[in-house]
Amino acid sequence: MKDMRISRRGLLKGTAVLGAGLAAPTVLMRPASAAFTNEPTGGSVTLGFNVPQSGPYADEGADELRAYELAVEHLNGGGDGGMMSTFSSKALKGNGILGKKVEYVTGDTQTKSDAARASAKSMIEKDGAIMITGGSSSGVAVAVQALCQEAGIIFMAGLTHSNDTTGKDKKANGFRHFFNSYMSGAALAPVLKNAYGTDRKAYHLTADYNWGYTTEEAVRTSTEAMGWETVSAVKTPLAATDFSAYITPVLQSDADVLVLNHYGGNMVNSLTNAVQFGLRDRQANGKNFEIIVPLYSRLMAKGAGANVKGIFGSTNWHWSLQDEGSKAFVKSFGTKYGFPPSQAAHTCYVQAILYADAVERAQSFNPCAVVEALEGFEFDGMGNGPTLYRAEDHQCFKDVLVVKGKENPSSEFDLLEIVEVTPVEQVTYAPDHPQFAGGELGKCNPGA
Amino acid sequence: MDAIILQILNGLDKGSAYALIALGLTLIFGTLGVVNFAHGALFMLGAFCAVTLNALLKTSYETIDPNKLDFLGNPAKVETPYIVDWFGPEFGGAMIEWSVPLAILFAIPVMVLVGLVMERGLIKYFYSRPHADQILVTFGLAIVLQEIVKGFYGANPIPTPAPDALTGSFDFGVLLGFDPGSIIYPYWRLIYFLFAAIMIGGVFAFLRYTTFGMVVRAGMADRETVGILGINIDRRFTIMFAIAACVAGLAGVMYTPINSPNYHMGMDFLVLSFVVVVVGGMGSLPGAVAAGFLLGVLESFASMGVVLNVLPGINQIIIYLVAIIILLTRPRGLMGRKGVMEE
Amino acid sequence: MLGLDNRDMKLFIWVVCITVLAPFILNPFPAESELAQFNAGYPDLMQRFMIFGIFAIGFNILFGLTGYLSFGHAAFLGVGSYAGVWMLKLVSMNVIPAIIISVIVAGLFSLVVGYISLRRSGIYFSILTLAFAQMSFALAYSVLTPITNGETGLQLALDDPRILDSASSTGSIPPTNFFGIEMRDGFELALGPWEFVFNFGYYLCAVVMLVSFYLSMRIFRSPFGMMLRAIKTNQQRLRYTGKNPRPYNLAAFVISGMYAGLAGGLMVAMDPLAGAERMQWTASGEVVLMTILGGAGTLLGPMVGAGVIKYFENIFSKINDALLYEWFSAMPEGLQDVFVFLIHPFIGKGWHLTLGIMFMLVVIFLPGGVVEGGQRLAALFRRRRQSRETDGPAAVKDATPAE
């Protein structure tokens, strides 16, 4: 009843407006047509920041959002300019993008592909976003990337590590700056060889979904290539909170290395459980038992507390890097928010700047022009050294960091230490590598 | 053999968490007839009592140490907990280290208070309302509690380790004549199991051997008659609610060293604990406990590699599969009473 | 008319008018104004209102009439979605075959689940349905990845066969269509500062929703509906009269499962991707909350509940601090900060908190849900007015029948 009344009022209003509108000369009936979807017409341009704001990755999402806000500030000429001053391309002038002030809308992916798509759609349909970026999982990245392809919008992926994002699910309108499972495996293998030798028996625990599968495959392939043997690989449910039932069989096996292909809450719990069961102090086959976490995130390492000490893993970027770009970014982020940025924040900041730069260089917001400007683009000064956005699959190629949990952290942010910066050549693969087989990039879609 | 013993231990351990939560849930079901979707949130609140106490003990003042630099290259601030300053690093440090066991003392009054406020302030008005309304209001409450905790502590898990003395593991294998190192089990998980056993035993003894418990049991069986006899059953039910909240909260406190707590841990356990309660049979406390251990053990066995090779994915669905089978073969779960929540 | 009595006809006409004019009603604020953030009149959300409306209407046929509380209805929606996407992949981008197969598959699945679960009642029934749904979710997310594409969700690919469609050479996936009319197409109408979007996909959803709503009205008023109500009131007594309630229950269960499948089919027709999360218990819980929030057992309630929850999810989660500062920009700086600080916890990432508080407020102050509570409030208001004024009968006549 109450509801009816509100609606009726709204209805009356609507009808009145319609009447007035039909009489007025300003009436404009048009099918949705423009040169490309959401062509910015006024003095501003809208970017869509689609990050997890609820659910287990909300903190990572909050950090991504901070980075985006910083990037927008820098693009509009505010702040100290951050990495814009170290970036090798000098197309950006600090007056927005193509002279248009950068505005943004935010949304909540909830780390669910459905919700992420709904949120991205509302940015495209309602807010007129010209580009969507962000996210904290590969499922979301792949789903939103496909949506952007169909809608004619550029998608600059946030944190997504699965091979599929630029493998079998790659799309012409989508770009990934973050590294991937294959690179983790390729970067980790030599370091593990040095530290633990070539005669090792590995036991894998793998999160039972796409990202887990690709990571297990990548780490297996590269460790087996150097002589390790894979004793067993067990899949664990995503919803698992207690991993004791998966850890205890490791005690019975003759494995001497445990690989935890887990991320987020799964990683925190499985690592905590593994340490509880004394795996760190264990001797097997006459060697020290070791644990490996292929994908590290500092935020998650914090959740595992002291358990990460001495455990190897890989990461896209870390705030302690000493190149000019990283230093500039840490300084401007740290000054604004009071703590160092996470790798997710770094990747998101870089993606926003890269997009803006590509538009400047292309002198157009047209997605096809942007794609052309980004394909094969080589740049430097954004952390990770010289980087290539490969044209064939829209994957970034750059140095990958192998890190280790720090034994004596000096602060709550100082949890990981960089063991090796794996040069880009070592993690580069052919576009038709079997781990990335299938799928087509397709053609860029400007929409409309 | 040793693999099986280990999985039984795992199952008992997991089962103790299920059983403790289900016990509280079924107390509320059985005594008050309220479907409490906020019960998982009580478990979570308990865990965050431990986190809060840890944070309180670590309350620090800052001094600037010119010799150290922070990540921006400025002189670093060094935090010294007041407690270390007051009691010296030895005793103060030990208090921080033992914060989880200490949190039990802290959590009891907090959880009792939360339970009383919740029952008197909200749940009381929903006794006579349809279950649908109870679901909506308690679910809403669970979200609110969760979001408040998230507002304070963020979404990331917060490590709350057990005291160093209790972090090692115990070698069962030697005790039973196996090779050393083949059956080891972390001390804290054994403590958790013992703790659960004590809690469960305590609640049962309380209900069985005290007059108070007798009246409550009578009330569970037939509320009206007890009321007619002139006994103020309402007040006793309020106390029972507080006890249930306390059981859930303490289960949460003790759980923190096993897995780092986060704000949605309650929701993760909620659905499972409902399954446990129903499989155990509505209105039956022993049923809830038995079902908790049964499902815990089965889940552990289903997670073994040998089993997974034959039936891939069985670890994902075992609990639900068993629930279906039990409910189809035993209409009211393991030990359910007739007529409770069957309409 | 149409087999409806006067009251119902009036209600139905209201619903038709509101759905047809929704693009206007949902966009009450000029596009450039600061309140435009609260506009909900964009295609995706309008489609969602309709789709979740259908889902909730269907759920209400089971829960509202028979009182059986299913906690696994999202599974039928999910299974329907998967079937729909496969149809789009294999047969044609026309949405009709996809929607039809969704309904059929969901119907069959609900027949199996219903047949087993309905052997028990009350909470035992709820847990059985929950168990089936959770198993479907867990398997779809992991082991069944070849069929469901797991975490990522089942989506279209360039090299899908689509045997009925002519091969496209554009290098992009063709959009879903209804005999050539693309679902994403539409036209915009700009009236001065106002902008309204009319989307073909929305109107397809609206037509389907209206048909579903009409059918549910007929079911509510039919002898079959009476029988279902009798089950809710006293199943025992029904049995004593020599009627077996099982077939009726099962029929209601399958009908509501088919409604869920229809919603799933429409969902992929509008946005061709099926994610496993839509089968999770939280999704099942959501439709329960929608129905209770709006008012279980009322005709209009579930749709209202669906609208409210989806509105919060999509609109409140997108308000951020920058926007808040814009809204309060007229205030002096200190005051501005205070307001932003006060409102901050409830918007953006805090939208869950707002939703939780709203659940509690609605159920505390409007027992029986928004619609029933609203009716009571209206009745209260009317009585007061009646006692003051003399033209009471006119006020009563003015009352719109709403259920």
In a few lines, what is going on in this structure?
Chain A is of the alpha/beta class and 448 residues long. Helices cover 39% and strands 19% of the residues of chain A.
Helix content of chain C: 55-70%
What is the rounded distance between the termini of chain C?
Answer: 19 Å
Q: What's the tally of helices of chain B?
A: 14
Give me the strand/helix succession of chain C: HHHHHHHEEEEEHHHHEHHHHHHH
Major β-sheet annotation of chain C: 2 strands, antiparallel
Looking at CATH, which topology of chain C would you report? ABC transporter involved in vitamin B12 uptake, BtuC
Strands ordered across the widest β-sheet of chain B: 1-2
Query: What's the pLDDT, averaged over the residues of chain C?
Result: 88
Oligomer: heterotrimer
Widest sheet of chain C: strand order?
Answer: 1-6
Structural class of chain B: mainly alpha
Q: Helicity range of the residues of chain B?
A: 55-70%
**Greatest contact between two chains:** A-C, 72 and 71 residues
Number of individual domains of chain C: 1
Number of strands of chain B: 4
Number of domain modules of chain B: 1
